[in-house]
Amino acid sequence: MNAHANLTHQAERADMAAAFRWTARLNMHEAVANHFSLAVNPEGTRFLINPNGRHFSRIKASDLLELDADDPETMNRPDAPDPTAWGLHGSIHRALPHARCLMHVHSVHATVLASLADSRLPAIDQNSAMFFDRQVVDDHYGGMAFEEEGARCAQLLADPKISVMIMGNHGVLVVGRSVAETFNRLYYFERAAETYIRALQTGRPLRVLPDAVAEKAAQEWENYPGFADLHLREMKAILDEEGSDYAR
């Protein structure tokens, strides 16, 4: 355990570690890149994030760094985070208190979607309807997400209604109020993107839902009782049954 990984926020740390492990299990990770973060103070400026260079499949609760988005000395720490993690996640947590949890990946189908000239995800099924009118496309990729790029991305997430930023030429960033909510959205966005890409591959016309129906389904997803929490609970139960050390 490093000096910054104390016993504070232990439940949140365990939830985060489980999400990392499950993301690797689903092959939605990429080498030692990509980052998840979670705000742990009311202002949203103090946040947990994965350490630099650690594979998702090995992350434990005690490994997570606790950073202050307003600390200019962060990158001078001996355990400094990846600079793109600081640039993207630090910028968003600094600017947007409502963005409590952020999950950024380059998962295959979300990145295929981000590579299309039109990267919007249409509501063609129940899963994709979850994101109806709740997504924003970043059409102005400007290179790796160091601080200037991160600040630009934060502006695109200013509307609290937005749950997903499809990062053109890059990947996807999902926003939520908790680890459970955010991971559930990340999982379903990747599934929905896969369905859409496979539907496009048929070359047949798409069955796009009417806006009113898509919005109704999106609201029903948001109000579905405890679904995201149950999803995370079962992920952790499986890891626990396997003897995983994620919660340490």
Task: Write the CATH fold name.
Answer: L-fuculose-1-phosphate Aldolase
Strand content: 5-15%
- The total tally of domains equals 1
CATH architecture identity: 3-Layer(aba) Sandwich
CATH superfamily: Class II aldolase/adducin N-terminal domain
The number of helical segments is 8
Tell me roughly what share of residues is in helical segments.
40-55%
Give the strand line-up of the largest sheet. Answer: 3-2-1-4-7-6-5
**H/E series:** HEEEHEHHEHEEHHH
Structural class: alpha+beta
Annotation, overall tally of beta strands: 7
CATH class: Alpha Beta
Overall mean pLDDT: 95
Anisotropy-based shape:
globular
Secondary structure: elements and pairs:
Blueprint: H1 10-25, E1 35-39, E2 46-49, E3 65-68, H2 83-95, E4 101-105, H3 108-114, H4 126-129, E5 135-138, H5 147-156, E6 164-167, E7 171-176, H6 179-202, H7 211-223, H8 227-241
Parallel strand pairs: 5-6
Antiparallel strand pairs: 1-2, 1-4, 2-3, 4-7, 6-7
